[in-house]
Design a protein that fits this description.
- There is one protein chain.
- By secondary structure, this protein is of the alpha/beta class.
- The protein has a domain of 107 residues: Spore Coat Polysaccharide Biosynthesis Protein SpsA, Chain A (Alpha-Beta Complex), CATH 3.90.550.10.
- Strands 1, 2, 3, 4, 5, 6, 7, 8, 9 and 10 form a ten-stranded mixed β-sheet that branches.
- Strand 7 and strand 8 form a beta hairpin.
């Protein structure tokens, strides 16, 4: 790690924003401008830019832009090439001093009201994680995605939280980290947070723009869909049913009966796993006997 630049740190920023980057210099002006457009005083924000050995001058661009912006504090650090966004985010989270934490990819942008809406929701719901709807833009068309209310059972089946979800720093302090064993690092992170007792709340309406493009990390992660899902299950066994854990072990061992299942979906019913033997119970399956993990209703 090298090339650290920072301004004088305030006692404790309201929000630390971690921006991991590899060769995304062209997106940085739009991303940082979206932070300035929030209904939150920029002086209350800390921005931590973490560069994964970019070849397009991203670090210099970030230094120049951040040096001219009225954020309360900022840092720009350079890593030797990692190649995965999760460890790059971890490096930024380790340095963050804010009461709240937000990981924001440089090719995405927050819509006005994202931060204020999420901060209000965390307080109203007494939650630790606030997530929102978003607009998915693939460069040709846009579609609005409105996620459901939080359910641990649904999270064990699919990831409906965007990476850019605002969390209290207690989530990090309880041990949630991005792990490189899976290509779906953010899904694994939210499962860790739920297991550690975090409460989640949904903020209605699209509050950010999620830009998809061919060279994005998520596109490459899809190539290893089955193994990535299996690793989430086996690295968080208490969150998943016994038959889902058996499916994950079978898939990684190459057992014929253990199919990858639908892309981006983990099988949570016994009959979905392909597990030989009797069908599963008609009772609701899921983590921890009755799925008692905390759930918070939707907030406006």
């Amino acid at each position: 790690m090298s090339a650290v630049l920072r301004t004088a740190r305030a006692p404790r920023p309201l929000v630390s924003v971690i921006i991991p980057c590899h060769d995304y210099a062209r997106f940085l002006p739009r991303c940082l401008d979206s932070l300035l457009a929030q209904q939150v005083d920029p002086a209350a924000l800390e921005v931590i830019f973490v560069d994964d050995e970019s070849s397009d001058g991203s670090l210099d661009v970030a230094r120049t832009l951040l040096g001219c912006m009225p954020f309360g504090s900022w840092q720009a650090i350079a890593l030797s090439r990692v190649g995965r966004p999760g460890p790059v985010r971890n490096a930024g989270l380790e340095l963050a001093g804010g009461e709240h934490l937000l990981c924001l990819d440089p090719d995405d942008q927050l819509l006005p009201g994202f931060l204020s809406g999420c901060l209000d929701a965390l307080g109203t719901a007494q939650a630790e994680v606030a997530y929102t709807g978003y607009i998915e833009d693939n460069g040709v068309e846009r579609r609005e995605v409105e996620p459901p209310d939080f359910s641990p059972l649904l999270l064990s089946n699919q990831n409906f939280l965007h990476t850019a979800s605002l969390m209290r720093r207690t989530v990090y302090e309880r041990g949630a980290r991005y792990r490189s064993a899976t290509g779906y690092e953010d899904w694994d992170f939210w499962v860790q947070a739920a297991l550690a007792g975090a409460r989640f709340t949904r903020v209605k309406g699209p509050r950010l723009i999620y830009n998809l493009h061919r060279q994005g990390y998520f596109q490459s992660a899809l190539k290893h869909d089955g193994a990535s899902k299996a690793r989430i299950v086996l690295d968080n066994p208490a969150f998943f049913s016994p038959w889902t854990r058996a499916w994950a072990r079978g898939l990684l061992r190459g057992e014929r009966w253990a199919e990858p299942f639908g892309r981006g979906l983990i099988p949570i019913l016994r009959e979905q796993t392909g597990l030989p033997g009797q069908p599963g119970s008609s009772a609701a399956p899921g983590p921890a006997s009755g799925n008692p993990l905390p759930c918070v209703s939707a907030r406006s």
